[in-house]
From TrEMBL, chain B:
Keywords of the record: 2Fe-2S, Iron, Iron-sulfur, Metal-binding, Oxidoreductase
EC identifiers of the protein: 1.2.99.2
A Gene Ontology molecular function term of the record: oxidoreductase activity
Biological pathway: Alkaloid degradation; nicotine degradation
Name this protein carries in UniProt: Carbon monoxide dehydrogenase small chain
Length: 271, 157
């Protein structure tokens, strides 16, 4: 499978990338690690006329201590998240979840920014960003704006990043000794989650339970009202509309969500 | 477009289409057919090569993304007539049946051992989860990687 013909442009800086986006408008797509975009282009589900490669921008790959929070460059690869000592200490949920994405080869290429902006509800990191109340820094021609993760994911493959903008940084408050867990059920190791659950303290987010990654609000409300993990997990399917397809039926996913939320909450409490 | 890629220690300048995938550059432009195309969907790992020393699936990388970087393929592992320790271990432990997945398995194993020189059996299995052997010959593949790790560690001591 070969992508449809396109013109390849390599951005030399963030400003250069923004200029290339302004020049080519909606005909252009940004390429980070390429592990979401290139498969779609090979299937010709995405047919951009211009591909703007961000891969040459080393200044967007970092994990930095910012006092009360950790800042992560959008081009930081899953492998670097998984092996970051700083994240392992301060935001272990993110480091752990990143280490479960795809396989080692995928983690050597895929980036946190690419994963979040792609907005696939079956991806792991969008739900993790939601559970961690991450703040996403989006830059456009007029400057940078900060978007809370809860307002970032709009719909199926749709995020708050407007045409002409790009995600530059992800900020997450340090978690101290907060309990956390990540549960993912897959048919094969390298598959997307049938259902996934990210827990950070009493925040619970779901993978692949609707058109976009979502917080399990009913579970969180039950926990806030004093419910046990097992009682709260019974609310995991409320407000969800999971896909009903060959990998799993919607009813199976809703059952699985309750099982995995209970497991995740119990593990998080035990940490 | 013009790309300059160091392939197996030698720098090459080539004209490629912008949309050329790295695996096609390796096989068709450079004529190195040891790297196989299996599933062509980032799943099977047959096309695994090293990009700047780390395993990647070359069916999901553009040749343009490798411009200015180093690629190592299965052909670049041996030192003259002397096989790489991972290659030798695959031969001795019979870590292959039909052989189609082998180049990708070997390259993924080299990358794995660079990151984790002394893996456990379980770490080898999870470290190779991106590579599929349709003969299901995983047992001897894992044995091969463990043997290569042992030999490399002994050599270093």
């Amino acid at each position: 499978m070969i992508p449809a013909a396109f013109t390849y442009r390599r951005a030399s800086s963030v400003d250069d990338a923004l200029a290339l986006l302004a020049e080519h408008g909606e005909d252009a797509k940004l390429l980070a690690g390429g592990h979401s975009l290139l498969p779609l282009m090979k299937l010709r589900l995405a047919v951009p006329e211009v591909v703007v490669d961000l891969g040459g921008l080393p200044d967007l790959s970092y994990v930095e201590d910012r006092g009360d929070s950790v800042a992560i460059g959008a081009l930081t690869r899953h492998h670097d998240l998984a092996t970051s000592e700083l994240l392992g200490r301060e935001v272990p949920l993110l480091a752990h979840a990143a280490g479960t994405i795809g396989d080692p080869q995928v983690r050597h290429r895929g980036t946190i920014g690419g994963s979040l902006v792609h907005g696939d509800p079956a991806s792991d990191l969008p739900a993790v960003a939601l559970a961690l109340d991450a703040v996403l820094v989006v830059r456009g021609p007029a400057g940078s704006r900060e978007v809370p993760a809860t307002e970032f994911f709009k719909d199926f493959f749709e995020t708050a990043v407007e045409p002409g903008e790009l995600l530059t940084e992800i900020r997450i408050a340090k978690r101290g000794g907060q309990g956390w867990d990540f549960q993912k059920f897959t048919r094969r190791a390298i598959d997307w989650a049938i259902v996934g659950v990210a827990v950070a303290g009493d925040a619970v987010a779901l993978v692949n339970m609707g058109p976009k990654p979502m917080r399990a609000s009913a579970v969180e409300a039950a926990l806030a009202a004093g419910a046990s993990p097992a009682e709260a997990a019974e609310h995991a399917a409320e407000g969800t509309s999971p896909p009903d397809e060959h990998n799993a039926s919607a009813a199976y996913r809703q059952h699985l969500a309750k099982v995995l939320v209970r497991r995740a909450l119990e593990n998080a409490r035990a940490r | 477009m013009h790309v300059t890629i160091n392939v197996n220690g030698e720098e090459h300048g080539d004209e490629v289409e912008d949309r050329t995938l790295l695996v096609h550059y390796i096989r068709d432009t450079r004529g190195l057919t040891g790297t196989n195309v299996g599933c062509d969907t980032t799943s099977c790992g047959a096309c695994t090569v090293l990009l700047d020393g780390e395993s990647v699936k070359s069916c999901t990388v553009l040749a343009a993304q490798a411009d200015g970087h180093s690629v190592t393929t299965i052909e670049g592992l041996a030192d003259g007539e002397s096989m790489h320790p991972v290659q030798r271990a695959f031969q001795e432990k019979h870590g292959l049946q039909c052989g189609f997945c082998t180049p990708g398995m070997v390259m993924a194993s080299v990358s794995l051992l660079r990151e984790n020189p002394n893996p456990t059996d379980a770490e080898v299995r999870s470290g190779l989860e991106g590579n599929i052997c349709r003969c299901t010959g995983y047992h001897n593949i894992v044995e091969s990687v463990l043997a290569a790790a042992e030999r490399t560690t002994e050599a270093a001591e």
